[in-house]
Design a protein that fits this description.
Distance between the termini: 55 Å
Number of helices: 7
Largest sheet: 9 strands, mixed
Number of strands: 11
Length: 258
């Protein structure tokens, strides 16, 4: 039977990392945590659970995840974030393909997000299909600093696993807004380096479309008030991304002291 390495990137994830590691029992032949110099109890929790713990300064999400792939002992990889965990159905599905020696190069799975205590089953956040189980000889992460994606070699084959990857995202609106602010800054800087442009039309139209797409077209309204809050924050994050890109173009300060 082929062996499986699970790689996890972390930074100050003491609230989540224990749950993530515990969900892997029975399927992981090794667990490798690559930590971006946490200042909380992340390291102590990982060492208590006897996983390989490697400290590596953060280089952007894509580069950090590719560094983590290189630290694994085995070629078949399950790549997770610390705020994710395997559902029982997904765990069993991974066990099944592992027993079959991973007939495909990569496997997608649905990700289900818990938002302020509520599981979200509609809108842009579900099924939120992700490829997280793959052969690193044929598939790897893009180098993008945020919103990284997997890249496959020609001839790679793919399957889809039943069950959900459980994503414990935000415990409060404030956490969501803080992350929106961080991601929008990283995205704007990446767009700026690639020569992309922003203007009034993008700042007006794109956020409005983001809300309509999540709340109406993808039926986020079926998740009640949380669906509305999520759609509004998707729109707000979109606005901030394009405003910050515009600010970079015009030399307008977007950070204190800038």
């Amino acid at each position: 039977m082929e062996k499986l390495s699970v790689v996890i990137i972390t930074f100050n994830e003491q609230k989540n990392i224990g749950r993530c590691i515990d969900s892997l029992k029975g399927v992981a032949d090794e667990v490798v945590v690559v930590d971006s110099l946490s200042t909380d109890s992340t390291r102590a929790i990982c060492l208590e659970k006897k996983v390989r713990f490697i400290e590596h300064a953060f280089e952007g999400y894509g580069r950090q995840k590719n560094f983590a792939l290189q630290q694994a002992s085995y070629d078949h990889i399950l790549s997770l974030d610390a705020d994710e965990a395997l559902s029982e159905a997904l765990l069993q599905a991974i066990e099944t393909v592992k027993e079959d020696n991973f007939p495909h190069s990569g496997y997608t799975m649905n990700r289900c997000t818990n938002y302020c205590g509520q599981w979200i089953y509609h809108g842009d956040w579900y099924p939120d299909r992700k490829m997280r189980l793959f052969d690193r000889r044929k598939i790897r992460w893009s180098q993008d600093p945020v919103h990284e994606s997997t890249q496959a070699d020609e001839g790679a084959s793919f399957g889809h696993l039943r069950g959900d990857l459980l994503h414990y995202s935000y415990n409060s609106l404030e956490e969501h807004i803080t992350q929106n602010n961080r991601y929008s800054s990283i995205s704007a800087e990446a767009y700026y380096k690639k020569g992309k442009k922003s203007g009034w039309i993008r700042m007006l139209v794109n956020p409005a479309w983001a809300f309509v797409h999540s709340y109406l077209i993808r039926r986020g309204f079926l998740d009640g008030f949380s669906g509305y809050v999520i759609a509004k924050n998707i729109a707000h994050g979109t606005f901030m991304k394009y405003y910050k890109l515009y600010a970079l173009q015009k030399g307008i300060p977007v950070k204190p002291g800038a």
